[in-house]
């Protein structure tokens, strides 16, 4: 039974069961239950003699989708069709029957409980099963299904890729009496980033599965433990709840009645009771905890507790926190609220950092990625100069290209002569958390190789010498070590997602707490190959091209699973292809931004497009059901006809997989009803292109940069009308352009009813709070 285990038994009963045993031992209210140990699973497969056949069946080529499907099916067949040894069967049923009350059989939750030493947590992400409201007739099968979940396609793929032997994997199962919750949720007993005595509680109606899975947007309550009072209450629109069906006993999802949808879930008294229990849990473990809880008939039950692992080691050092320019709250604010946009870029020029005399400013431009760093200049004129860029250097080049990403990751700072806030250098620098100045004009000519400089990515200046407030290049840590910690996520009805340009930024993007990825660009993965798609396919084969795309997409999809990841097919202009091997035949267009790009190129030259779709089909077969495909520069229903034809040829059913289009031209905005009727599930605004095509302003042309305005009334009208039409037709809308990070645009979109906003990595936190403020204001206005 659970009361017989504790933290020392993780290797036997797994993390969930060990934690529950600890809570029971501490006298906390935990529903009774028992664990089917990892040893029981091991004895089951060995004594039945299926272990060798099982492990042989799943020892397949992880890149072979058909083999993965067969392996999963065979493993499931072996486990589910092998009968329990009578002794094990009776022991499980006996323990289950002991939980019966008043002669009625118990409803239980059956949950996988991984042993800590088996695999990294990510290897089980989205794979371990949980079954709710299980009764005796289904219990043994559900236990087996938990065991079989070790051998889903994704789990097999992970272990094969990482060289982890399948035979070394064990798993336990928790069987616990269900709490037929009236309300439930999660609680952080301390601030998950700073460790401050601030409790954050999320709550919704019904079973907690809806909150944990992200099916419902819960209420959010913040409680200050020092002042012993509720600081903030955010009441969400809770559209659905998961409950036990009174007739069948199964877990069902129901619509919440209108009265309760916007009703507050927790009273102040219930919050106080939860906080008191949370403090007891934290005291018991000696560390802040992430707790799952439920309330039934006025009684609180603790369902699970785990330590919060995202608290910064330097959280208590205010000076250190304020100086963390690469990954702090101020970093996001600089991009979201400062004058870093194209229309305000002039205010950066000639401004000295930190109030010093501007006499020592050597070069100035646009502050594209915040932070202050000092280091030695490394001038990069050609790709073969990239090896000269070492960790801690300030990389200076005319403009960056995808091939330069490895060097950009090593650099302490980046300076480019060309480009604006939406250039490759600006986008990638922000995603990597590397301070950057773009559009400096003459950096490669004025700065000298080896010269010590200080780069200010907020103000857009490069000054001579080192600064006491800057990170030293010699002591510079790789970007991977400076990712932002998971913040307290404001709960909003409008989803806030994140843009990702390169797979390397996936983990940093996931750490923002975003609701998913609103835009994952394929083109940076393709361009980094150094060859055009046609040339790469000719040299290495279609399968190898698919493999490259799968590897990049999978890295991001793994980080976010099961949160949705929206992947855009290739959208690179011809001038970028011309720089690659095999690009000699690319047309020389006067303005590539208006040229042969996006879906028009994909439909005209379909072979690479077919391979992109084939890669998506393989990803779906691997179990990545969180992927959504998005097509760029679509104008009308004729484009949709071509797209869906290729999707079906690739084995992707447009009726069962979510897909949509970018709204980047006035034509697509004005044709939105036809696009919706053609079958799209969502429409996402690309404001960089929509603005330039609406206002006739080339966003890469410095002579008209001051006329580029995403908040122009004409642009806003196109966006607003499109959202209104989509809402009437049941099509989701989102924004993934640069403007999604601006407070004014956020307020406009929320008021119009956009479904989601996708922001740059460094602006997610600010957009979350801006969305929350706007929703609260709208809610207050509606009741005043």
UniProtKB/TrEMBL annotation:
* Region: Disordered, residue numbers: 315-356, 456-483
Keywords carried by this UniProt record: ATP-binding, Kinase, Magnesium, Metal-binding, Nucleotide-binding, Pyruvate, Transferase
Pfam families in the cross-refs? PEP-utilizers (PF00391), PEP-utilizers_C (PF02896), PPDK_N (PF01326)
| GO BP annotations listed | gluconeogenesis
Instruction: Provide the Pyruvate phosphate dikinase AMP/ATP-binding domain boundaries.
Output: 12-317
User: What Enzyme Commission number(s) appear in the record?
Assistant: 2.7.9.2
Q: Outline the extent of the PEP-utilising enzyme C-terminal domain.
A: 486-774
GO molecular function annotation: ATP binding; metal ion binding; pyruvate, water dikinase activity
Q: In which pathway does it act?
A: Carbohydrate biosynthesis; gluconeogenesis
Source domain of life = Archaea
Task: Name the needed cofactors.
Answer: Mg(2+)
Please give the catalytic activity noted in the UniProt record.
pyruvate + ATP + H2O = phosphoenolpyruvate + AMP + phosphate + 2 H(+)
Matches recorded under InterPro entries: ATP_grasp_subdomain_1, PEP-util_enz_mobile_dom, PEP_synth, PEP_util_AS, PEP_util_C, Phosphohistidine_dom_sf, PPDK_AMP/ATP-bd, Pyrv/PenolPyrv_kinase-like_dom
Bias (Low complexity) occurs at: 318-337
- The yes or no answer to whether the keyword rRNA-binding is present is no
In this chain the PEP-utilising enzyme mobile domain maps to 390-460
Q: What does this protein do?
A: Catalyzes the phosphorylation of pyruvate to phosphoenolpyruvate.
Query: What family does the Swiss-Prot or TrEMBL record give for this protein?
Result: Belongs to the PEP-utilizing enzyme family.
The record, for PANTHER family, names:
PHOSPHOENOLPYRUVATE SYNTHASE (PTHR43030)
- Name the record gives this protein: Phosphoenolpyruvate synthase
Taxonomic lineage of the native organism? Archaea, Methanobacteriati, Methanobacteriota, Stenosarchaea group, Halobacteria
